[in-house]
């Protein structure tokens, strides 16, 4: 059986959160389009909808990471952000997964 990528993305985050409550999901107001609206019911305060502020979302992710050992997942719908900044954060292991 084939599953849509967006549903698999949400399922994977739920599976990881079930094993580790340090998983955070950051959204850019796209939970309906990305099938992640159910995440907020399970992740509670570990689910952050940043609104349509992708640059701020990266800053929020960096701040959460500085607070401790957290696994961050960010979904971005566009490439308005400087891709080099995102790659930099990823290589610093501040982000575990980036979906475009």
Topology:
Layout: H1 5-19, E1 23-27, H2 39-43, E2 47-49, H3 54-66, E3 71-75, H4 83-91, E4 97-99
Parallel strand pairs: 1-2, 1-3, 3-4
Instruction: Give the rounded overall mean pLDDT.
Output: 78
Number of helices: 4
The CATH topology corresponds to Rossmann fold
- Number of β-strand runs: 4
> SS-based structural class?
alpha/beta
The CA-CA distance between the termini, in Å, is 24 Å
Main β-sheet: number of strands, strand sense, barrel status? 4 strands, parallel
Low-confidence stretches: none
What is the strand arrangement across the widest sheet?
2-1-3-4
What is the assigned CATH homologous superfamily?
A: Thiamin diphosphate (ThDP)-binding fold, Pyr/PP domains
CATH architectural label: 3-Layer(aba) Sandwich
List the secondary-structure elements in sequence, H or E. HEHEHEHE
Shape: globular
Characterization of this structure:
- The protein is an alpha/beta fold and 100 residues long.
- It has one domain: Thiamin diphosphate (ThDP)-binding fold, Pyr/PP domains (Rossmann fold), CATH 3.40.50.
- The chain has four helices and four strands.
- A four-stranded parallel β-sheet has the order 2-1-3-4, with helices on both faces.
- The protein is globular and about 35 Å long.
- The relative contact order is 0.17.
- The mean pLDDT is 78.
